[in-house]
Amino acid sequence: MKKEMTLDEIYAPVEARLRAVPSAIFEILSTPNELAQDVIQYFFSAPGKLLRPALTCLGAEIKGLRPIQEKRLIALAAAFEVFHAATLIHDDIIDSAYLRRNIPTINVKWGPELAVLVGDYLHDKAIGAIFAGGNEKIFSLFLQTAGLVCDGEIRELKEKDNFNLKEEEYLEIIDKKTAALLACTIETGAILAGVSAEEAEALKRFGRYFGIAFQIVDDCLDFTGNEEEFGKTLGADCSAGVLTMPLIRLLQLVDENRKSEVLKIFSALDGSLPVRQAGTVLQGEKSEGGTNPFQVLLAMIREYGALEYSIEKARLYRDKARLELSIFPDSPGKRSLELLVDYVLERNR
Amino acid sequence: MKKEMTLDEIYAPVEARLRAVPSAIFEILSTPNELAQDVIQYFFSAPGKLLRPALTCLGAEIKGLRPIQEKRLIALAAAFEVFHAATLIHDDIIDSAYLRRNIPTINVKWGPELAVLVGDYLHDKAIGAIFAGGNEKIFSLFLQTAGLVCDGEIRELKEKDNFNLKEEEYLEIIDKKTAALLACTIETGAILAGVSAEEAEALKRFGRYFGIAFQIVDDCLDFTGNEEEFGKTLGADCSAGVLTMPLIRLLQLVDENRKSEVLKIFSALDGSLPVRQAGTVLQGEKSEGGTNPFQVLLAMIREYGALEYSIEKARLYRDKARLELSIFPDSPGKRSLELLVDYVLERNR
What we know:
Chain A is mainly α and 349 residues long.
């Protein structure tokens, strides 16, 4: 693939629709409540990748959408982004993260109390918009998805500090907490475009595989990313006690001696985040001498090839995702989906 | 009214339906996620007043319900209780409350992280059940209500430590955060029983007035209640910086000197809660000597008759609520609603 391809280029076939999403988001979230307004303006001032709206639009594009459905599609695409934002806001409370999309998180700027409520508010507004814009099938699919997301997140919390977490269990968790929503967004677009049940199922599976690949890469970036490019707190998973694939792989490979070393470092990092603030020395790239625990851990992860292993797994899911697209005839929408899975593997944000 | 009347006696006309609610709640919340299961079992092991399910059932009873709707009614009644539970779980994070229904809150027992996620989980499950059990009208009404609840709670958070908060503003906040859901529950029951639009509106207004009276009394109990009977943290509002009617009234009446005294006490109490644990000396009834700041504040509130004033206001809303029932012919259901508003004024839990 062309490594230099930007998201804008990949999104080209649905560019006009995606341009309409931000104002649709603000329409969904319009409120006379001034404090809520301030927080909403603040959060959405930092643009995300709009991955979920893009998938909704591309899901519709792959079969072609009747113009009459245009407005509903944009409303649904925006609603998914709002729902995703709600989960991010609550996630940032749970992880005590201080940085999101390169700006301080809501819990840092306004406190966790307001973050809880604004998350709830976005959550409800998203549901209202999906109900209004969707149909019974779409809304049922969405409700089921919301349940999976919560289930995955509760599982993740339960497995914190569980050093015996298996790779399959990790994959099951990220399938629920991340991939399920991505699958729902693309399937929704496809349903709106009137695909067959078989085609909808294929796109749903595409979304699941794509989502798993996406999350594995995200979890690698939590170790190796550049905080400024990545736009969120680095080392957040370790600090929250969450084991992800690179660490699970490392623990599989090391002998007992080194294993206890890893566990010691991990325990030292666990809970270290809340006292750190944006702008201080980062756990990864920028610290001097390489003697801080995070860097020691990272060095071991590199030594054992656990990152390469993880990326290799992500590639496997990319391939599975691409395979699901094979039943569709070539089209600009399909091409974009193919490029998007490649992009996810090469991304650094 | 007969002061000794119990909730069970008042609920008599809908007793059989209410008995079916707990198992309907567990049906809505059934999950293979063991951690979620544990938390759900724990939370619902402490019975609440089931006010929302009771209102749903009584709303249906006031006109008579066709037997075919029976199952839907119970499912909706249970779903409202689940939705209410979700808001309580998040509220307890926000207020750092340690006691709810006489047992430690989820944030105390499992930490705020899990409380955020389990609140989200209950929220989603409730919405799913209301969608499944309701119809378009009921679900739209509910979504609108959920928006009001959030809006009211964000307003309340915004007005923390605002010593200039006016009584009307306080009333607007409690109307949204508390009364709107009570109104929605009774209107839903009535819609299911096939009432006219006019009758539905009257019951909705009943619910709003009832809810306002209920919340004013609740806010008085936060000052004067017995923690064991009340079942939740006393003095929680002051400790969270929330001004309620007794305090707003006191601030209206005192001169500048005493006002600054009140503000000093309030500021001292603000934020004092998180370090306290269930079982320690209570802020109100049980401390010795009466010299702690909460007792000084309470003495001033009593001296200026601010509690009587608040209860008088609650009575006014009780009367407004009862007036809305006048369009309905006498029935056991109607009688229960009348008794319920009286009960709320006399309650101590």
